[in-house]
Amino acid sequence: MVQFKLPKNSKINQGLTFKIKEKVNSLKILKVYRWDPEKNENPRIDEYELDKKKCGPMVLDALIKIKNEIDSTLTFRRSCREGVCGSCAMNIDGINTLACLKPIDEIKGDVKIYPLPHMKVIKDLVPDLTKAYEQLASIKPWLQTNKNNQNSSLDRLKIKKQSPEKREKLDGKWECVLCFCCTTSCPSYWWNSDEYLGPAVLLQASRWVNDSRDEERKSRLREINDSLKLYKCHSIMNCTRSCPKGLNPAKAIADLKKAIVTDL
Ligand code: SF4
Ligand code: SF4
Ligand code: FES
Fold first, then answer.
1. Which of 10, 18, 66, 124 is the most exposed place for a label (fewest CB within 10 A)?
2. What distance in Å separates the CA atoms of residue 259 and residue 264, rounded to the nearest whole number?
3. Is 90 in the pocket of ligand 3 (CB under 6 A)?
4. What pLDDT is attached to residue 9?
5. Most informative mutation of 116, 196, 203, 234 for ligand 1 (most atoms within 8 A of CB)
6. What is the pLDDT of residues 110-160, one digit of tens each?
7. Which of 112, 94, 123 shows the shortest CA–CA distance to 242?
8. 98 CA distance to ligand 1 centroid (A)?
């Protein structure tokens, strides 16, 4: 029988509140999702009060300040702090984005922070990306040479030149930082993540399909020409709206579908 109620242990409780002692004019409250797999407890929302004047401008600055000065148990991923590594992706104020690119001042009221939606949570704001990376590996995100290529292996190892025009075809694709903000905002991926590759991986597929140096364009297209892997995209466009790098994975997916029709 179908169960329509959420299990009791998925209910989010009110958690701890960390107040600042002195009175400040630039108070900001962060409400942060917490869950520890080592404690047999429901997830909770902890509240942290911060003085904005004593904190950097971005949401990631606030999280780092909390971890360094208020609550060292708060767990999240980050590395570059400049929108390049893709590791600080989370849901901030209802939108998937990179915490290091999201200014605190853009958020009216309290800052609500959750992990990326519809992914298993490892701890607090850290999602389990194992499946997403397996899907990435499945599209072979590297240059391939054709097995039937008659050139000597030495020739095949030579650096392959690419004209500026052909290189331009990779624009809008190589900039992807694999943050999975798009994939985790895609309703089709929420319900079909076992089979559907999702917008981030399909944008990567398009990056390699369109690389003039790659010798396996057709086999790449054949591989993704699948009702579940590719055609579960119904052009809802949530992916493009949520990309913090301003990329357009929905268009990349549409272009892949077109290439399958014209090239196979
Ligand atoms: S356009 Fe496709 S990939 Fe993007 S959100 Fe919609 S269904 Fe998902
Ligand atoms: S397309 Fe944008 S949102 Fe999707 S993984 Fe790449 S950078 Fe992140
Ligand atoms: S810390 Fe690298 S993208 Fe945010």
1. 10
2. 8
3. no
4. 83
5. 234
6. 999 999 999 999 999 999 999 999 999 999 999 998 777 766 666 666 677
7. 94
8. 19
